[in-house]
Design goal:
- This protein starts with 11 loop residues before the first strand and ends with a strand.
- About 50% of the residues lie in helices and about 15% in strands.
- It has about 550 residues and is α/β, with parallel strands linked by helices.
- The strands form six sheets. The protein has a five-stranded mixed beta sheet, sandwiched between helices. A three-stranded mixed beta sheet has the order 12-16-17, with helices on one face.
- α9 (about 230-240) crosses α12 (about 380-395), α12 (about 380-395) packs across α15 (about 445-500) and α14 packs antiparallel against α15.
- The model is unreliable at about 320-330 and about 400-410 (pLDDT under 50).
- It has helices at about 20-30, 40-55, 75-85, 105-120, 135-165, 185-190, 195, 215-225, 230-240, 255-260, 310-320, 380-395, 400-405, 410-440, 445-500, 505-515, and strands spanning about 10-20, 55-65, 90-95, 120-125, 130, 180, 210, 270, 275-280, 285-290, 295-300, 340, 350, 360-365, 375, 515-520, 535-540.
- It folds into three domains: about 5-165, Rossmann fold (3-Layer(aba) Sandwich), CATH 3.40.50; about 180-320, Alpha-Beta Complex (Hect, E3 ligase catalytic domain fold); about 325-540, no CATH class.
- Bound molecules: zinc ion.
């Protein structure tokens, strides 16, 4: 039917925009070539030309951002279809009929019926389809069949292309893993990093992963902490408020940490098609592991953030990490003897294995003149002390500049420079003294002049020697402090490990005393029974 018989001019209708899988692939390829474009904007231009040509009235524009297979998952299309059902439009404009539906016969029937019953036309750049027209109905049936066939073929072909790219080590997902950037994003967002990874920008591959300047350090820190037996809870505590989570939130969850530790991407692998995502009618996915041998792996895809050995070791630690319940009720004596003090009166807390007939041992302040502190279950104190040990350990280790800091290399270098310059100056002073003698011998200097000059030079020499001594002393004490620092961190690490399960309370008590001076505990009487308490650990250093 020709369009002037259809009386289109001035009639209301809508534009419906949706990308096909082919469009998405084309966009990705263009991106890879460095020529990104926006499919939907192009389509809108094409359809607006039609609107101009037919002089029709656009009432709505629906833009589908998801690439949905079923009507149920395409919210914008549902709105358009409802308006078609309601007879609101004379026409619906799309770049191709297949944008309305595809891949599912039931949906196809539902769409055709809506258009037929309401007498709504489908306007495309190459044809106006009237479902009331028998020829057009047949045409749509044929298109539907063709679309279904072509859809299946495309899906197969595209997934073949994606598997091939993944095998080459390219990242094919929508969002790179936390800790990494795609090359294309590195070039646009962090151009200053290009030199770190390649001679020129062209050598940075758009779809390859590169370490993110901040997030990569966080990932490394997480692995390092896990490998040092730091509890996941403590890692969350440390990261919360310091770094944003992968989704941009504030609070790090334990699942986020374990998820990161389990990902092979961090040892430089690209794994593609490990799970099969089977789409359901409602748009949700059923995730099933793929058959063995079906997943694509590239084990040298990009720069790893952890070594193979570290990654493997972290899996083992993670598997053994249970929620820490330190020595649940095993010990019957005070592991914090001589350390745990009431934060109000300062006296040591008393350990009571059978506090008022209850089963859980508790600590209480038994000072009759101090009635400020609530008693506390000993396990809670143990848990809290463990967290403090872990945090202390991390604070000694987590600083990204720690290499410099822990050895104090920067300041030692400064001292070294200063020492050299003093020694140089001393040498000059020595030669001045010699020269003064020489000048005296050659009678250039009178004895008075000689003494005057010599006194000045000797004073200068004494001052320099004193400075030299004090700097040498500072260097020594600095080195000593570094040495202690170096011992303290491994000591903490071994205590943390042992504290998770120990047999001898006495041994543990002695070990704790090597790093802890005192622990001050506070929970005011006025506080609620289950309110938080505070402990303040005074470290040996
Ligand atoms: Zn007290």
């Amino acid at each position: 039917m020709s369009y002037d018989q259809l009386h289109l001019e001035g009639t209301p209708g809508c534009i419906y925009l949706r990308k096909s899988r082919k469009d998405i692939q084309a966009e990705r390829e263009a991106l890879e070539m460095g020529r990104p474009f926006d499919t939907l904007a192009r389509h809108q231009e094409i359809l607006m030309d039609l609107v101009k040509k037919y002089k029709i009235n656009v009432v709505d524009v629906f833009t589908e951002v998801v690439s949905g297979e079923f009507i149920a998952e395409r919210e914008e299309f549902q709105k358009a279809l409802q308006n078609v059902d309601d007879g609101k439009y004379r026409w619906v404009a799309v770049v191709d009929e297949d944008r309305l539906g595809r891949g599912n016969k039931i949906d196809q029937g539902r769409i055709e019926k809506a258009f037929k019953d309401s007498g709504t036309l489908i306007v495309t750049p190459h044809k106006i389809v009237d479902m009331d027209d028998e020829a057009d109905e047949l045409y749509m049936d044929y298109k539907g069949m063709g679309a279904r066939y072509e859809y299946k073929q495309t899906k197969k072909r595209l997934s073949g292309g994606r598997r091939k790219s993944a095998a080459e080590g390219k990242f094919m997902g929508a969002r790179p893993n936390y800790g990494y950037l795609r090359g294309i994003d590195l070039k646009t967002e962090y151009p200053e990093l290009i030199k770190t990874y390649a001679d020129k920008a062209a050598d940075i591959e758009n779809l390859r992963l590169y370490p993110h300047p901040i997030e990569a350090d966080v990932v490394k820190l997480i692995y390092r902490s896990v490998l040092n037996n730091i509890g996941i809870r403590t890692i969350c505590k440390m990261l919360t408020g310091t770094y944003l989570t992968p989704s941009g939130g504030k609070n790090w969850a334990r699942s986020t940490i374990t998820h990161i530790v389990k990902k092979k991407v961090y040892k430089g692998w690209i794994v593609f098609g490990e799970n099969k995502h089977i789409k359901q009618e409602d748009g949700s996915y059923l995730v099933k592991p793929a058959k063995p041998g079906q997943a694509i792996q590239n084990q040298k895809a990009h720069i790893p953030l952890v070594s193979d050995e570290e990654w493997e070791a972290a899996q083992k630690v993670l598997a053994g990490h249970t929620t820490v319940s330190v020595n649940s009720g095993k010990q019957l004596s005070n592991v914090f003897a001589g350390m745990l003090r009431c934060g109000f009166c300062g006296l040591t807390m008393t350990y009571q294995p059978r506090y008022k007939g209850t089963r859980a041992p508790r600590y209480t302040c038994t000072n009759p003149h101090c009635k400020e502190n609530r008693s506390i279950v000993s396990e809670k104190i143990e848990q809290s002390v463990l967290e403090n040990l872990e945090l202390k350990y991390l604070s000694l280790n987590s600083d990204p500049n720690k290499e410099k800091k822990s050895t104090g290399k920067g300041s030692i270098d400064l001292f070294d420079n200063k020492l050299t310059s003093i020694k140089d100056e001393l040498a000059v002073v020595e030669s001045q003294l010699n020269e003064q003698f020489d000048l005296l011998e050659r009678k250039v200097y009178t004895i008075e002049l000689f003494m005057q000059r010599q006194n000045a030079t000797m004073e200068r020499k004494a001052a320099l020697e004193q400075e030299l001594q004090s700097i040498q002393g500072a260097v020594e004490s600095r080195k000593e402090k570094d040495r202690l620092n170096h011992q303290f961190a491994p000591l903490l690490a071994s205590i943390i490990q042992k504290f998770r399960s120990y047999d001898s309370v006495e041994d543990m008590n002695l070990l704790l005393k090597t790093v802890i001076d005192e622990i001050h505990y506070i929970k005011p009487r006025s506080a609620q029974l289950h309110a938080d308490f505070t402990i303040d650990v005074v470290w040996k250093q």
